[in-house]
Amino acid sequence: MTKTACPRPHVLAPIGFGITLALCVSQNASAEPPIQSPQDAACRNEARAKVFTAPDPQGLGLHALGRQIHAACMQRSQGRRATRRKSR
């Protein structure tokens, strides 16, 4: 019989999976700051919906492109709010 480096792989596999899952969850939990307003929530949803279909000629990547979409949406929504207040 030959000795293996890991005598009980069936025991260690779930532990490794659990550690990997915990790291992924903790990274995703801190990836976004808390939602600040209804407009922020709506713009986050818009960015999530458009990030994979929007053109990226500058090669920014998905995260930066999503931030640009979110920022543009927030500016549009604040422009609408200011216009509404002036018209009353």
Order of helices and strands: HHH
> How many strands?
0
Question: What is the approximate shape?
Answer: elongated
What's the gyration radius in Å? 22 Å
Strand content range: under 5%
Q: Low-confidence runs (pLDDT<50, min 5 residues)?
A: none
pLDDT averaged over residues = 78
Class by alpha and beta content: mainly alpha
Count of all domains: 1
Structure commentary:
By secondary structure, the protein is mostly helical. It has one domain (9-87). 68% of the residues lie in helices and 0% in strands. It contains 3 helices and no strands. The radius of gyration is 22 Å and the shape is elongated. The mean pLDDT is 78.
